[in-house]
Amino acid sequence: MKEKERRFALTLLLAILFCIPAALYGYEGVAFKRVYEPRERAFSILVPKGWQHEGGIFRVNALQAGGPLNAMEAKCDLLYKSDKKATVAFHIYPDIVYAHLGIGGGFFPPGSNYQGAEVKQIMDAKTFLKALFAYYHPRAANVRILKLRPLPGEKLAIDRGLAYMNRLLASAGMPQATFTSDAAGGVFEYTEGGTRFREIMMTGIVDMRGAMTWKNTRTLSFRAPVKSFDRWKPVMDIMRFSIRFNPDWILKEAHGQKERARIVMKIYDRIRQIDQEILRKTRINKEEIMNDNFLVLTGQEEYVNPHTGEVELDTDAFRHRWKTPQGDVYYTNQEDEDPNTFLHQTGYKRTKIRKRRNE
Length: 359
Description:
Layout: H1 3-17, E1 32-36, E2 43-48, E3 52-58, H2 62-65, E4 75-81, E5 89-92, E6 97-99, E7 113-114, E8 117-119, H3 125-136, E9 141-150, H4 152-171, E10 180-192, E11 195-208, E12 213-225, H5 229-241, E13 244-245, H6 247-298, E14 300-304, E15 311-315, E16 320-323, E17 329-332, H7 339-342, E18 349-350, E19 352-353
Parallel strand pairs: 6-8
Antiparallel strand pairs: 1-2, 2-13, 3-4, 4-5, 5-12, 6-12, 7-8, 9-10, 10-11, 11-12, 14-15, 14-19, 16-17, 16-18
C-alpha cells in the first residue's frame, strides 16, 4: 500500500472511531447515528453525530388537564439540534386535540377547556402552519413565506390511517361523522438572534367531526441558516424517512390505549349525558323565562290547585290565595289570615305558586 493510501485509511479510521467530523479532513460527508427516542424508546431515528436533543414522549394527566381528550395517546415533542442555539434543527411536534366550537351545547366559549381540550375554531393546514410558526418564533423579524401549499401525498397517507375508523362509522350508520383530513407544507424565512434562517414546516389536520374534536398530526419542521440551507436540506429527508417505530413499544402503547379508551368511553358516556342534561335544562330555562315574562306583563301567576294538583292561571294582585274543592277562592295579603276561621268553612286550602322547572 502506498504511503498516501495508508495515510488516507488511517485518517478515515480515526474519524470513525473518535467521531471526528470528516470535514476536518477534507471530506464533506455527514455521519449519522441511529438513536432511540430518549424517554420510552418509542422509535429510532438517524441523527447527525454530535447533535443534541430536547424532550421526547410525554403523557397528559387527564385529572390535571381537566379531562381525557388529550390523555388517550402518547405525545411526542422532540427537538434534535446541532448546538445549544439550534442553528440547525429537526423538530417533531405533538398531536394536540382541540374541541370544536359549539361543543357542550354551546356553553363553552373559544379558549375555554372542554374535557381537557381547548375549544378552538378548526383551521385548515395552511392556517395552522402560520399560527404554529408565530407561536414558536415570537421574536422572528422580517418574516417571509416563500411557499405555503397543500401536500396531497401527505393527506393521502393520513386518509389511509383514518380509513378503518371511517368504515366503523359508516357501519354504525354515521357516515356524516366521517373523519376528514387536510395537509400542507410551508417554507419560511426569518431573522432570529442575528441569523437569517430558512425553515420548512409541515402538518396534517384531522377533523373528527363525529366526536366534535379536531387535531394536528404528523407535524414537524427543519431549519438551517439560509446560506447553508441547501446543503443541510437532505439531512431533513434522511431523518424524516429513517424513523422506525419500536414494535415492543407499539404493542405496549396499543394495550395502554385500549385500557384508556375503555375508561374514556365511560367518561364520554357521562359527557353525553351531561350534554343532554345541559340542553334539556337550557330549553326548560328558556321556556320558564319566557313564561315568567308573559305572567309579569299580564299581571298573572300560576298556582297549583291543592285539591286536584292542576296548574291554574290567576291574578298576582294578592300575595296569598285559598281555594275549596267546590272552586270558591279567597284572596288576601295577610300571611296569617285563614278563611276557614271566619267564613266558617273547612275546605279552604292555600294554593301555592307553581315551582319552576329550572329551580
